[in-house]
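We both want to read discrete structure tokens more fluently, so let's practise on a single case. Would you write everything just below, so we can both look at the same thing?
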Amino acid sequence: MPTLIPNEQRNALSLAITRGDTDQLKYLVEEHGLDVDAFLDDSSTCMPVLMDALLSNGFSSETEQLPLLRYLLEKGANPNICCRKGYNCLHVAVQQDKYIKALDLFLDFHADVNVPDADGANIVYWAIQGFLLRKAAGADRAEHLRVLEKILRLGADLDQKTRYEMNAREWLKHAAPEVQALVVRWEEGRPSVNPVTTIQPKFPTHLQYPGVAKKIWSESVPAADPAATVPKELLRAVETLRDEAQRNGNVHYRKQHRRMAVFVRDTLVKSGIFDKGIIDRIRSGTDKLMKASKPYKEDDVYDQLVDQICVFYTQKKAPVPL
């Protein structure tokens, strides 16, 4: 179970982070002996203190933010620990140009570079697929290359596959020549890949069938193809909708998202497996996921649908081909 900041200091610490008040945060930590490697709360996101500080809007620039991040790291905050949604500070920082200095800093503090995110991607996957492929105006390519080399030297695995059967090496084929040349030079030294050593906290779950859900996800599918079974495609749809609502507030919600909710509803309702009470819950739950302007951020509906997909899977007794 994740360690939580005590209730008595939680609001004050959260407010200090929100305001970007580094001095107040240091005072609270020192005065109360707070564990900076703890989590602020047990909400649907449940982020460690370091991630909350990284995502704070209370700083005018990343440079202004770095002393607070360094302080937390030096006090024992672990950048490898994931939030409830399955992302750690390295995963967050590597995907946005504005956090390049923070990423560089995190790499100096025992970075476990092959920790997978919720989709199974490690940070070298995002480093190559993400900021090195973007052509953002004014982007410091030399700085990005330096940080990529740092990630590689920490034992990154270019062949680690995501749950969609993709890896960094596939994206490398489309990367800029200087990126490809860097990787060639690195591999000429016959580098070793470092295994993941971070032990992640166990978050409480409301799922009735977590083992079945894990089994559905673990079934192999062809690279870059839709899921090879209906249950897996249903599960993928629910988790895509969950991620869009909770992480993005439905900013990127499009017609395909609504079609996912309809697909989940119609497949489960028409399966003939569920009684009227469960069908009503399926309809009610998926209706909440069809409103782009009202992102549904609580886990209850998504977890209920995942459980019903697990029942669908087990009742069918075998994966059902698309």
